[in-house]
Every structure is written in C-alpha cells, then in structure tokens.
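Q: Can someone sanity-check these two? First one:
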Amino acid sequence: GAPAISIFLKPPGVIPLGGSTTICCSCQCDNGHFVLYRNGKQIRTQELRGSRAEFSISNATNKDAGVYSCHYLDGRTVLARSETVEVKVGEFCLPRPVLSVMPGQDVPAGASVIFRCNITHSNARCYLYQEGAIKASSLFLEGRNSFNITHVHKGNEGRYSCQCFIMDPSFKWSPVSETLDLVVR
C-alpha cells in the first residue's frame, strides 16, 4: 500500500506576526521528495532527508496563513498525500499561559490526567496541543481551563503546550505556553 504521511507544525499553535514555525512532513519512505501545498497550490519542493522534510516559515505575515498539505512523490508519480494542517497568523495581546498536569508528568498506563492551562484573562478559551498531532487536542470551554484524559496510553505520551485566545471583536492570542512532557509507563 501507499506510505502514510504525517504533517504537523513545530512548534504548534498560532504564529505571531513576524514569527516563525516549521511544517514537518514525514513518512516511512525510501527516496523521493515532498511537495508542499498551501490552499491547494504548490509552493515548495524538498528532497527527502531520512524520513522527513521540513518547510520553514519565518517573518510570518497574513499571507502565510492557510491550509497546508504535503504530497510524497517518486519522480513525477504521487505516491501519497497527507491530511491538512491549518497555519494561523495572529496578534499576540494576552499574557503567556502556564500549563500544568495533575497528578504529574510521569503516570502509569490507565491513569487519568488533568491538563490545566492557567491564564489571567477570565474570558479566554484555550487550545491544548500535543507536538506531532495535526489538530489541537481540545478546545477548553469558556470559563473552564482544564482538559481531562481518562485511561492514558502510550499514544498520549509526548510534549504538550497550550495557547489561549479571546474574540474582542477579532481574535487576540496569547503566546504558546512552555512545554510539558507527559510520560506514560
């Protein structure tokens, strides 16, 4: 069958104007190259390095916002296409939130954990990001700043961060929190 391609942002989250991020495309492939698309239009090509290609965005503007995907090609033949990942560029006006996890960062499989994203703005809503994941894990409800995972497993292990926003009248964002590593034994 066709190889599976994963696509994700590193670091995850909304990019500040003038900021940077990297779009990572990876697959278990031998050779060939990746083609990066934004809003359905081809924008860059890169040879495979190991099992990954990284496309950097620096000095971000609103023109960099959009829906990105990767195609993996061998010669001119498309062997696989990734899911899409949305790149957002926004104004950072809120303070940086602080992410914590209870009962701790090292938990046994099957345990429950609660991620808490603390921010001083009472009307903020927050996203929880897991590095390497295409989408944000959850949108915290307004007034609730925690996200529960029951019965954690090895797939929940990884690096997490959170980012908050308010709509006043347009989106205003916080920087992304410092990261936390969750280890599942």
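And here is the second, same format, sequence then tokens:
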Amino acid sequence: MKFLLVFDFDHTIIDENSDTWIVRCAPERKLPNGLRNSYQPGHWTEYMGRVFVYLGDSGVKEDEMKRTMTTIPFTAGMIDLLGFIGENKELFDCIIVSDSNTVFIDWILKAAEFHKVFDEVFTNPAAFSSTGYLTVQHFHAHHCAKCPKNLCKRKVLTEFLDKQLERGVSYTQIVYIGDGGNDLCPVMFLKKNDIAMPRQGYALEKKISQLAQSLSPVQCSVLVWSSAIDIMSYLKLLIKE
C-alpha cells in the first residue's frame, strides 16, 4: 500500500512564483517595459531566458540570486506537511512537476532541508554558463495542444507511472496537489480512486468547477485546500484506513 503525492511548486509548495520573485534582483527590482511586454502565451520559458540574460547583463551574480530565492515563503502549513511526509516516507512516494527550473527548486528545497522528502523533481533544466549567466531549457517536447510548449504535466505523470510499473511499483491512490491552469491536464488523467487537491481561489479550482458546470466533470475526487494543514489532515485519514 503506497500513495503517490504529486506537487506543483509555485503557489503550491511556495507561496509565490519563483520566476517573478527573481525580479527582486534586477536594478530597482523591476524589468524594463520592453522586456516585460515581450512574453507570448505558451512561451514562458523563452521569456525567462531573456529575463536571465538581462539579470546577467546587469551584473547580478549567482550568490545574490540564491540569497534572494531562499527568502521565498512557503505556503501556510507547508513546512508541517513536508515534515509529516518526511516522517512517513515508507507510505508516500513524492514528486514535483513544475514549470519553474531545477536551479530555483534545488536552492529552495535544500535551504529548508526538504530535498530528501521528494523522490524526483521534473522541471525545466537550468544551469549557470561559464560567463555566470543562468540559462533555462524546455523540459521536453510534446504534442498536447492544451499545455505550454515546454511542459505537459500529464505526459510527465504518465511516463513516471509507466517507469514505476516496470520497477514493480503501483499506487493505491494518486494525490495531485496544485494551483495553476497547467495542472488541469494531469488532473483530467486521474482515475475515480485518485484525488485532486486544487488550492482555493486559484486557476485550477476555477477550471475544475467550470468543467463540473458544463457536465464534463473530472473522474477523480476533488478536495480544495487553503492551508497545507488541510492536505495533512487528509493524508492522516488516508493512512489510518
């Protein structure tokens, strides 16, 4: 009996968007209008690539970025929840599927000593170049029309589950915890026994309720959370059953 917990990162584990938080490192803590207006829907990763070039050109170094990123607050109750999962790792496999990047997530989890809670992190690969500029790449290529060009979370989840099955691991239940519009695609893949936990007041909750109104509801159960304590209460019930 093992459960799979799938977490989004921005506005789920942390209470901010890591990509917009990094702007605090920019001169006057803001981006030039031309750069800010250069974002095109579905091409966030390319936009962040330009932001990182601007930060590099402005002389922002790796250690300053790291210091800034590790000040991001966790969402309410999240530190307790991750501590609880860490204490019960024999029952829970735990992964992150995020449109952030490997450098930011690594910094934040290691600073808070939560990196051991997660078995795998699936996010856009990032690294510092020889000239000290942060670079970011697409996580993968996919053919899903609903998702941003660089990442389909459903594809990540299905490939992970297939790989686990090959290793002889299957799950009693999948619990998907997220907030954003790009979390809907994997949630629609979940089965009747699984559970989606959208954050209250965010895009995922709104999209799930729109589907229910148009009489094409998701198959899985839905439990809305506002504090990660709500998630922990559910997991405690789950392991008692």
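A (reply): Looked at the second one. The CA atoms of residues 106 and 115 lie 7 Å apart. The longest strand covers residues 92-101.
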